[in-house]
Amino acid sequence: MNFTKTAIDGVIVVEPKIFNDLRGFFYESYNKELFVQNGIKDDFVQDNVSFSAKGVLRGLHYQVPPRAQAKLMRVLRGSVYDVAVDIRPRSRTFCKFFATILSAENKKMLYIPQGFAHGFCVLEDGTEFMYKVSDYYSPEHERGILWSDPGLAIPWPEIDQAFILSEKDKKYTTLKNLSL
Predict the structure, then answer these.
(1) How many domains does the chain have?
(2) Is residue 26 part of a domain?
(3) Is residue 38 one of the residues assigned to a domain?
(4) Annotated catalytic, 62?
(5) CATH code of the domain containing 140
(6) Can you give the residue range of the structural domain that contains 153?
(7) Which of 23, 74, 134, 136 is most buried (CB neighbours < 10 A)?
(8) Closest Cα to residue 175, out of 116, 134, 127, 113?
(9) What per-residue confidence (pLDDT) applies to 165?
(10) What is the pLDDT of residue 180?
(11) What share of the chain is helix, strand, coil (3-state, %, to 5)?
(12) Separation of alpha carbons 34 and 167, rounded Å
């Protein structure tokens, strides 16, 4: 596996080694020992899967302490534009974001530590998105930031349709209006 640090403190792109042959392919998607050797020491306790149509935009979501979550994101089918926003007030990359395309084809994964908001836009119909989290879902600790926050200026991809958002995601406020 290849672990590539990004310009955002703590966010890492993980690329598995793919073994292809006439039968198809094989790869390790998670190996705790390799992850720890590369600075990812979280104990992942839950796997989540979402299935979405093209144009679905989910986020920007996070959980506050003591139930904050680190995440390891990947796509099993289709593709997404995946975004991590640093919301750690004392971080040198506070209010900065990292975005990348995760797909079944490129098999890349994105590690997002605690203290980040996360969102993604689905680029293909029938996309299946899977992610590990380091703490369990807790509705009372769940928070969000408006996906179109002008202060963040995330360059969401242009697709040939309007984004599909939950009512909850449409109502979140901007980062500058939050007390972190």
Answers:
(1) 1
(2) no
(3) no
(4) no
(5) 2.60.120.10
(6) 43-177
(7) 74
(8) 116
(9) 98
(10) 73
(11) 10, 40, 50
(12) 39
DSSP state of 11: -
Per cent of the chain over pLDDT 70 is: 100
49 and 130 Cβ atoms separated by less than 8 Å: yes
Residue with tokens 């139930």: 67
Residue 29 lies in a domain: no
Query: Which spans in the chain are helix H?
Result: 32-37, 167-171
Which one from 61, 62, 118, 172 is the annotated catalytic residue?
A: 61
For range 61-89, the mean pLDDT: 98
In whole angstroms, what is the distance from residue 145 CA to residue 58 CA? 11
Distance CA 96, CA 114 (A): 15
Confidence of residue 30 (pLDDT cuts 50, 70, 90): very high
The CA-CA-CA angle for residues 23, 29, 85, to 5°, reads 135
Where do we find the tokens 């198809």?
24
Note the pTM of the prediction, 2 decimals. Answer: 0.96
Over residues 117-174, the pLDDT tens digits come to 999 999 999 999 999 999 999 999 999 999 999 999 999 999 999 999 999 999 999 9
Q: Which of 30, 131, 141, 172 is catalytic?
A: 131
Residue 7 domain-assigned? Answer: no
